[in-house]
Structure formats: C-alpha cells, structure tokens
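Table S2 (continued). Query chain:
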Amino acid sequence: MDAISAFPRRPLRVRLGFKQGAALAMAAIVGVAMLAGFLFLGATFGSDLLREPQVWREGREVPIEALEGSCRAQMSFLPLSYCSFALTYRAPGETIRTKEVLALVFADMAPRESATLKIDPENPDSVALSWLIDCLEERWIVLVGLCLIGLGLGASICAGLIRSLSEWRRYKAMGRSPYPILVAFLKKKHVANPNYAWEYSFRYEVDGVTRHGRQRLRVLKGGHGVPPEKWDYEVPIMVGKETALALLDPKGRALLVPQSFRPFVMNKDEVQNVLCAAGYHS
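Corresponding output:
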C-alpha cells in the first residue's frame, strides 16, 4: 500500500493547537496595535507640522518666560530624538500660560538657547517656536519615515496573519473530503519575516495541468544560542527523495501534510499506516 492509498478518505476534524491559536491572537493584537499606533502618531505630529507654519506666518510674537525640557534618543537603532518641553509664555492680556511642546527630530538636533515664539491670537494655545520652524522639513522626513517603517511592519504582521487564516480555511476544506496527492519539491529556504519558518516550493499536476505551490512550515521548538536554522520545525512527509505527501483543496491548490499531521485529528492507527506506507518505520 502506498501513502496515497493509506491516507484516510473519511472527513477529518481540523483543530487549532493552543500555541498556534495564541500566536495568531498575539499577531492580530500586535499588528492592529502597530497600525493604529503609527496612524495616531502620524495624525498627532502631522497636525502640528501643518499648523505651525501658518501660526508662524500670521501669528503674534510673544515673550518666552521659560523653556524647560530636552531631546532624548528613544531608539538606539534609529537616529531620532523625541523632544518634550514645558513652554511658559506671556499671552496677550498679560496672562501666563504653560504648554507642552512635543517634536520628533533627528538625533543631532538640539533646542537653541534663544528662541522666538509666535502664537495664534485667536487661540493662544496654538504656538510656533523658531527653532522647530527652522527644521520643519527634517521633522517631516522623520515623521514620514518613522510612520512608513511602523506601518510597513504592522502591515507585514497582518499579511502573515491573513495568510495563516487563509491556510487554516483551506485545511478545513481539505478535511471535509481528503484528496491526497504527491508533489515534487523545487527548493527550500529559511525565512524570518514575519515568523521563522522553512518555506517549501513545489510542483504538482491537477487534471493534466502543472501547478506550483509554496508553503511555510512553522517552528516547533527554538533554543537560545542556537541559530534559527537549527531549530525544530514541522517537516513534510517525504515519499522518496524529492516528493512529498500533500492534500488538494476543492480549488485545486495543494498543501503539504507535515509529519505531525497537524492540524488534522487522526487516530494512531491511521497515522502509523500513512507513515509506514511512506517509508517511515518506528
């Protein structure tokens, strides 16, 4: 009996493991949080960058009573600084106001000892500092660059989540009416984004038409001090040296069956029969 004949043709239940479910939930939380966080960051600082030039052109100059604060590098791998100041100034009508001023600048920029301040007479809380106006273009570059990086990472995580959920739906469809086939391996490469995995590329035929597939098999167990390439990963069921067992979904797309048979729920005899037919002997 070969591996295809040994594979059960009854409907198979598909079960998401606790670790895999927790990883998908965490990916959803992190991805959405990153997208929302960087969108909020862009909207918050972007509104200041749009408003300050108008205040500087049309506003009224007022004396600065105190300017306390500093610019600190928040991320060692990016040449950026986050500036936070408590600005105290005298508004029209001799009233003293204090406002928090926030800015993202390049790491080599620093506030100048003397600065000119202008405010919107109709809204005294709307201010523009001369040294921040002088580096307006640089602030735009910092904000846009940071938001692109953050949104790109968030989008990458969300794309990985969508791919995993799509794969999960395909497994459920396969489980309703299992149709095993053999696929021919083309290449295998290690990937790190968004999660460590081995990515397999393969070729197979459906109704005389050659198709190509690509699938990532996840980490089972990692270890500190061990290169990710040496970690334990899900591995396909090899039938010979260059072919592996896969299942075909209703749309004619193939997914590899790992040696753990996850996410399919099968009894021990069924698992043993398939592995023995594929050439694995305990």
